[in-house]
Structures are given as structure tokens and as C-alpha cells.
Design goal:
The protein has 235 residues and is of the alpha/beta class. It has a 5-stranded parallel β-sheet, sandwiched between helices. A 4-stranded antiparallel β-sheet has the order 6-7-8-9, with no helix packed on it. A two-stranded antiparallel sheet has the order 10-11. Helix 6 crosses helix 8. The relative contact order is 0.10. The structure holds calcium ion (CA). Calcium ion binds next to loops.
């Protein structure tokens, strides 16, 4: 098996050095860029980057802007943001701009490795266009179409949908969703998830009052399901 390629965009030489050693020892092919511009060139010019570790505080363009540009340029690999600031606002900003996860500095390298593995396990699902009913979710192009027409989803609706699709058949609790999609560390009691699910259903379900695809699992949360024919389409 070839090594997974990881690009670290980080201006702190000490961290580049220690993470480089650590990731190489764990079997990754490691590359680093010390500012956003160099990172963009490296990530987009190199189609085989499997994962990007992206610092928020960078000289020149910051990590949020790098993240936005990476997604706009079509990078599909998971992006894990490294933030020195633990503010909810920052984490939400990163996730909205297309990051997949974040870690607050200073972090334990073992936790970083565990998060990276989780992201890489999920990554293959993002290669596809996922179809259900008359809906197509183009995870590569970040577009949703219904009966061929574009569906306008808010950033959080899209993130929520992707999160459920990536875990097809698994229940996601409201707390999981508030952490992963909204970036809360300690999720408050709120109807936010339910409200967004209602909006998604009204945009994507054949009958939003009897959901086929975005199901409620009572007392547990939500899950995305398709029929067997939809999961393995006949060619
Ligand atoms: Ca930095």
C-alpha cells in the first residue's frame, strides 16, 4: 500500500519538525508549506495530497482564507484545521469554509493521528455523486441538484447533509451533529439541528412529512438511508 500524503501548512518551524517526524514514523508521506500561498500551490498542484493539516494563524493569507480557496479550487481531500484559539466562532468559521475537523493547539500528537485516521477512513465516500430519489449530491463539486435543477442549501444545511451521507445507515445524535457541524465543544440544548433537518427535508424529500432518506431515530438522532438499488445502482 502506498503511503498517504499529508500536507502541513504551518509557519512554526518547531511544529513542522516534530509533526514531520511523528507522521513519517506513522507511515505517512509528509510535506510542509510555511505560508498559505505556498500551501495552495502545493495542495492544488499536487492531486495526490490525501489530507491537509492547516494552521489558522499564518503569515499573509490566514488559514480560513486558504481553506476557502482550497475548496473553491476543487480540493476534495479532508482538511483538518489547527487553531491556537479555542473560540467556537473560529471553529464554526473553519467548518463553514469547508474544513472537516479542527484541533485546538496545543494538542496531543496521538489525538491528531487518531483524527487523521478517522478523516481518511471517511474520505473515499467523498469521491462520488450520491443519488437518492430525484436528488444528486455532488460531493466533489459541492452541488446539490433535484430533478437536474440546482438546490440552494445554506452552508450548514450542506455540511449537515454531508455529515449524514458520509455515515450512511448510522445514527448521528443531536450532540454529534452540534459538535461536528456547528463546532460546539459542549453542545447546548437547542432545536437547531431539528430545524435544519426540517429545512433539508423540505428541499430534498419527496414527502417532507414522511421522510424517506433523512430519518428520525426516536430518542437517538437522525440517519441517512437509501434503498439497496440506490446504494448500488445498476449500470
Ligand atoms: Ca501559525
Amino acid at each position: 500500500m502506498t503511503s498517504r500524503r499529508v500536507l502541513l501548512i504551518e509557519d512554526e518551524p518547531g511544529l513542522v519538525l516534530t509533526l514531520g517526524d511523528r507522521l513519517r514514523a506513522a507511515g505517512y508521506a509528509f510535506e510542509a508549506a510555511t505560508d498559505g500561498e505556498a500551501g495552495l500551490v502545493r495542495a492544488v498542484g499536487e492531486p495526490n495530497v490525501d489530507l491537509v493539516l492547516l494552521d489558522v494563524m499564518l503569515p499573509g493569507i490566514d488559514g480560513f482564507e486558504v481553506c476557502r480557496r482550497l475548496r473553491r479550487r476543487g480540493l476534495r481531500a479532508p482538511i483538518l484545521m489547527l487553531t491556537a484559539r479555542g473560540e467556537v466562532r473560529d471553529r464554526v468559521a473553519g467548518l463553514r469554509l469547508g474544513a472537516d475537523d479542527y484541533l485546538v493547539k496545543p494538542f496531543d500528537p496521538d489525538e491528531l493521528l487518531a483524527r487523521m485516521e478517522a478523516l481518511l477512513r471517511r474520505a473515499p465516500a467523498t469521491n462520488d455523486v450520491v443519488r437518492f430519489g430525484d436528488v444528486e449530491v455532488d460531493l466533489r463539486g459541492m452541488e446539490v441538484r433535484r430533478a437536474g435543477e440546482p438546490v440552494e442549501l445554506a452552508a450548514l444545511e450542506y455540511q449537515l447533509l454531508c455529515y449524514l451521507i458520509e455515515r450512511e445507515g448510522e445514527v448521528a445524535s443531536r450532540e454529534d451533529l452540534l459538535r461536528a457541524v456547528w463546532g460546539f465543544q459542549r453542545p447546548p440544548r437547542t432545536r437547531t439541528v431539528d430545524v435544519h433537518v426540517t429545512w433539508l427535508r423540505s428541499k430534498l424529500e419527496p414527502d417532507r412529512t414522511k421522510p424517506t432518506y433523512i430519518r428520525t431515530v426516536r430518542g437517538a438522532g437522525y440517519k441517512f438511508v437509501r434503498t439497496r438499488d440506490e446504494v448500488t445502482p445498476r449500470r
